[in-house]
Amino acid sequence: MKVSIFSTCLVDLMFPGVGKAMVEVLERLGCETDFPASQVCCGQPTYNSGYLEESKQAMINMMNAFEHSDYVVGPSGSCVAMFHEYPHIFKGDPNWEMKAIALKEKSFEFTQFIVRVLGITDVGARLEGSATYHRSCHMTRLLGEAETPFMLLEKVDGLQLEPLKNADNCCGFGGTFSVKMPEISEQMVDEKSACVADTGAEYLISADMGCLMNIGGRMSRTGKEIQVMHIAEVLNRIPAEPERRGTVEGGAFA
Amino acid sequence: MSLKTDDRKFDARTAAGIGDAFMRGAVGSAQDSLKTRRLTAATALGDWEQWRELGQQIRQHTLENLDYYLGQMADNVERRGGHVFFARTKEEASAYIRDVVQSKNARKVVKSKSMVTEEIEMNHVLMEAGCEVIESDLGEYILQEDDWDPPSHIVAPALHKNRKQIRDVFASKLSYAGDETPEHLARFARDILREKFLEAEIGITGCNFAVANLGAINLVTNEGNGDLTAALPKTHIAVMGMERIVPTLEEMEVLDNLLCRSAVGQKLTSYITVMGPREPGEVDGPEEFHLVIVDNGRSEILASEFHEALQCIRCGACLNVCPVYRHIGGHAYGSIYPGPIGAVITPLLGGYDDYKELPYASSLCGACTDVCPVKIPLHEQLVMHRQNIVSQGRTGVADRVQMKAASKLLSSPGMFRSTLRVAYSMTRLLSRHGRIVRGPGPIEGWIGIRDMPQPVKKQDGFRSWYENRERVERADAFDAPLKDIRKNGLSAKSDANAAVLPKAEPGRDSSVEEAAAPIGKEGR
């Protein structure tokens, strides 16, 4: 199965370990990957700020970049959900509406792809310890995918999942919201951090680096110790191949 | 009260909200307990998603045929001996009500809870005309006695006050000498209000839904004050936003179900009444009935891209799940309509000059859209507001410059590659120990409260790794998952439609599912 990697701009800039882990897991599961080099960003930062026309250029760039892909898989429920919005944004546009629909139909979030397309829930990963999972709002509500991360984490050998109180409340990231309204965002991320800390878990796992950068960054700033991991990094912990662990970063704020 | 409840700027209102520890505690625990109650009441109906769709269809159908149903409603009210007044503006609406009151030489007015009467500044107009106006909803009565403190929630107006504060209001304004037990406070207020109901010459209610084919109005309350307000005084004036109408009792039943369950997590509220002009032979009810149908900007909303906002049935569920409302409270919105629906309709009714910050007071988490019983795409409408604010040139110069630069960068593969090449060195002077510690504009907003990792060197980045790596041996090197694939009959040729599990439906109320299957190993 041929899969085009949609790395996302955050991973490109700051979190290479997440991209590597995603590629390694997918290839281990039998996928052939490629990386369309002209991809940049889904356009969400400017789109959500109200700059519609300006954002369309970024979206068109992505539709072109992935035009020949069979599947497009990204390590972010939020960025993939943005792809799924393209048909709505380009509705009635004779040049781009069909391409927007095509991109939507072949785009999957990483865990969603593994479970719903590959049909796999046990990737053979092992991670000893307790973890809590933050479900990102965009993945859960906009992409409509609430289950696949849990189905995969359940099968991770040695991992104990701790329930997170008020799991459905937003962490306060919201893209530009976090810098435009930092005072409100701070209250939200503080409450989220407290709930995460209360679980006593060693790992905070999510399928969105935006949320993890927010919660992890706040917990790091306020001296709350937790190891932040993207779910791809968790699923890439393969016991039989210890040498590969070197490629798995221990989390951005570790 | 008018639409606008506070003359301070958004930042000052927000800071006040964030600083009010009590209010935040009250709102937080109200949200938490309502979440469970709402979910229980919603799931008890069966397929909640289908009910939502039905609710949405009813609202959309009614709005698409609004002129027809309003005409039918007016004809039926008049046929039954009532009076109907279409008010184009809030001034026309409150002037009509004042004229009715004055024509009766009335001085004493009792009213039940109604957001639209707040919107048209009715109390103010009537008091200026020399009337005593008594709010008979307990929450509203508390606020009235507290020198007209503005409501902070569209269903629970005094949500921001605790019982001790309420005791203090009653003690200082009404010489209440009892303790802060809710039952005692309520009994005290009830004794006063009973007298007011009996004295009142005019009763003014809102209208949850007008039932067009009957020429009747539907009131949904828990305290019964709405029914006393409508039934005891000789004259009843009902005020409705022009969108609050249903064709028949059948649609009303669906919407009342959605309303009660979404608003307070009850199957039905204590009182659900359908009333109107007194019919010949009826022994009670008002001698005179007036229905005031308020436009006040709704026609423009109906004709605009925001028309779905008019589907709102004022249940307040979006406030009850909003993480922003949770921390800043209702007063921070500066409007009688707070929360997500307030952030959508307040700028439509009150303009961007006063309210352009509201659409940005959202992380676009979508909790509001998910919970809305009539499926208003609230978070999408907030983005539409942002688009209007941008296209009208109302954002600051710095914002425009940053966003235009960002859009250039994010749409240009070459420029982005160059950025990846220089990001590390460009941020070296701003960083310490792999974290950015200072920076311009937006970065400042981030690092003021959070750590931010420094971008990686190009050679350490994901793209360099991908280009230069030796491909890991695939598939056959790893058995277990492959067996899975073979077992499930998926091959390299399988396509997205071959998904093993049903694809989750975006936009459905995922929180319902969450209640059924708690996170963690036990629940799954």
> Mean pLDDT score of chain A, rounded?
94
Order of helices and strands of chain A: EHHEHHEHHEHEHHEHHEHEH
How large a portion of the residues of chain A is in β-strands, by DSSP E?
5-15%
Strand content of chain B: 5-15%
- Structural class from helices and strands of chain B? alpha/beta
- Spans of at least 5 consecutive residues with low confidence of chain B: 474-524
Question: Share of helix among residues of chain A?
Answer: 40-55%
Could you name the CATH topology of one domain in chain B? Rossmann fold
For the record, give the distance between the C-alpha atoms at the N and C termini of chain B, rounded to a whole number.
Answer: 50 Å
Radius of gyration of chain B: 28 Å
Largest beta-sheet details of chain A: 4 strands, parallel
CATH architecture of the largest domain in chain A: 3-Layer(aba) Sandwich
| Class based on secondary structure composition and strand pairing of chain A | alpha/beta
Describe the protein.
The complex is a heterodimer of chains A (254) and B (524). Chain A is an alpha/beta fold. The two termini of chain A are 35 Å apart. Chain A is built from 13 helices and eight strands. Chain A is globular. Chain A folds into two domains: 2-117, no CATH class; 126-247, Rossmann fold (3-Layer(aba) Sandwich). In chain A, helix 7 crosses helix 9 (148-154). Residues 243-250 of chain A have low confidence and may be disordered. The longest helix of chain A is centred in the C-terminal third of the chain and has 17 residues, at 182-198. Chain A has a four-stranded parallel beta sheet, with helices on both faces. Chain A has a four-stranded parallel beta sheet with strand order 6-5-7-8. Chain B has 524 residues and is α/β, with parallel strands linked by helices. In chain B, helix 2 crosses helix 12 (249-264). Chain B has 25 helices and twelve strands. A six-stranded parallel beta sheet of chain B has the order 1-10-7-4-2-3, with helices on both faces. In chain B, strands 8-5-6-9 form a four-stranded mixed beta sheet, sandwiched between helices. Residues 474-524 of chain B have low confidence and may be disordered. The radius of gyration of chain B is 28 Å and the shape is elongated. Among the domains of chain B are: 65-300, 3-Layer(aba) Sandwich (Rossmann fold), CATH 3.40.50.10420; 397-468, no CATH class. At the A-B interface, helix 1, helix 2, helix 3, helix 4 and helix 7 of A face helix 1, helix 15, helix 18, helix 19 and helix 20 of B.
